[in-house]
# Entry
Amino acid sequence: MRPSILDPLFAPVTTLEGVGPKVATQFQTLLVGAGETVRVRDLLFHLPTGVIDRRKRAEIATAPEGGIVTLTVRIDRHQAPGRAAKSAPYKVFAQDATGEIALTYFRGQSGWLEKLLPIGEMMIVSGRVEWFNGRPSMVHPDFVASVDEAESLSLVEPVYPMTAGLSPKILRKAIAQAVERVPAVSEWIDPSIVAKHGFPDFGAALKRLHDPADERYLAPDGAAFSRLSYDEFLASQLALALSRQRMKKARGRPLTGSGALAARLRAALPFVLTDAQQGVIAEILADMADADRMLRLLQGDVGAGKTVVALMAMATAAEAGAQSALLAPTEILARQHFDSLSKLCEAAGLNITLLTGRDTGKARAAKLEAIASGEAQIVVGTHALFQESVDYRDRGLVVVDEQHRFGVHQRLSLTGKGRAADLLVMTATPIPRTLVLAAFGDMDVSRLEGKPAGRKPITTVAVPMERLDEIVDRAGRAMAAGDRLYWVCPLVEESEKSDLMAAEERFRQLKGLFGDMVGLVHGRMSGEEKDAAMAAFKAGRTKLVVATTVIEVGVDVPDASIIVIEHAERFGLSQLHQLRGRVGRGEKASFCVLLYRAPLGETAAARIAVMRETEDGFRIAEEDLKLRGEGDLLGTQQSGMPFFRIASMEHHAHLMEIARDDARLILATDGELKSERGEALRTLLYLFGKDEAVRLLRSG
Ligand code: ADP
Ligand code: MG
# Structure
């Protein structure tokens, strides 16, 4: 259970003064994304990006047009609008040694204003100055205090990232209240690390950032910011270490095969395994043969040939008498894996079953029976495989394909349920080292370098939309010559206002020109419709398939040699790379056409330039990281929330390794988090939403 001292921070934001349902919704948009409860804690972790410093004083005569200034003035007179001119503003005139300024209030209440700005009083006012006919005015000053009052007020005001419609004042007030609620907690960071980095304690760090005495306190490499980033890394590393500890503790078992099935598979393959593939297969089999449980990440660029590596591992499990589950992120992919593996499995005498949410009734019951009896040696499916009560006779190996799509939370629960099975995670997005650490902790990593021999480079060109007709023309000629093409559009049926050409419209147009050679597949189709469209394309009954990004990950049609990506400027770099990876898998020279709408923004132009320059997934991932930030790269962009809320890889990556080592040390000495510091660390885990990890402690 979450320690009760954290209750005030986990209360909904509506428990704060000045926060009603409307503001709460704005906070939700800003902080957590739709569907999630926004809590006081979320406000705390929303850090300012700058300050307005009202300590610097300006003079009326030299106040710049449009600038935000702070003035020390004497209030001279009030001028309420006359009866005849009700819509005219209420003006309060004030002066300093250099001149006079009008403080202007629309629909100002005289009673309220007379109290706020008493005649004869010395006041500090701050806001935007506008000059009109040689006269300065300040409309609705955003800060007003008497000179005496101002001494006790904080004159350095934090500036926060905002969302449309939200008032900065309301946000500031809410955050100030949140800071007040921070309880005294015992230190969870190792004292030597605290001392070495000069970290303030948790509450003090928050206060220093939300109520900065100076802009310098907000520097990302400052002590307060670093402290909170470290907290965040430590929570994440500790959670990962806990799940690893738990999984390792679960009795692993050696899975050793005779090699008979694997040999038959090799013989059935239409190609020879590359040295790189042989190498990673050896690593995986060694892990499986070990009594410890396997926790291995297989990284390999799109088209590197990961699937067959997984198949060899699954065959070995079968030789050892255990079952394997292969988990795909989408139904299309699950079906594709099933289709392509079936032939090989049949040749080798391996029993493989596909289980998706679409199986119902008797057919489903029969499959569940085959899984429970152990007759099904390999089970392919989507994550429904885990959510539902699917009983295996003996599941020894779990392979997860394109894992980065599942998100970090699911990953924990997935492994939590994985019991004693060996785990192999395959990812196509080449994640840089620091991010592997962030997302997977110290999982063992195999890298499948290079691609199967004989692959030809993909020629990538960028073409403005104005030349669409030309591209359509060429597509027609390519189809006539027997080529197969993907045509990717970003969205289906966007709002009417959008100028995006929806996939359906493009489909109608191309079908009008080329008839039945054109197919369509998009995310709103039913599973059966999608399968049918992909099957037709794979079999060559259609030569061009108009698609949305449902084809982004993993789809494998080696005969397709051209991909046209419409509105390429709207895709991220990794996404473009994944999409391009759909071609260049066969004998033919391949092309990628990036259709863009001019003029290109700076980032979009940079992305397209990188795409034209290189096919190297690792380089593309590094560039992507620079251009977009780490959250997107890990596929957490669906929720719109960054992977880390506080820490940034740009400034704090060096703290990650320290946090990882610290987390390991903690678990080595206090594996159950029972010591005094252990208790404090539990609080840390809850603070950063790692409840799942704490649960592992109890059930472990
Ligand atoms: P990914 O790593 O992106 O999942 P796949 O496993 O889908 O890649 O493999 C891409 C394509 O390369 C498939 O058509 C597969 O049959 C083929 N392939 C895999 N290994 C080899 C190899 N050693 N030689 C030739 N082709 C291969
Ligand atoms: Mg794949």
About this structure: The longest strand covers residues 68-79.
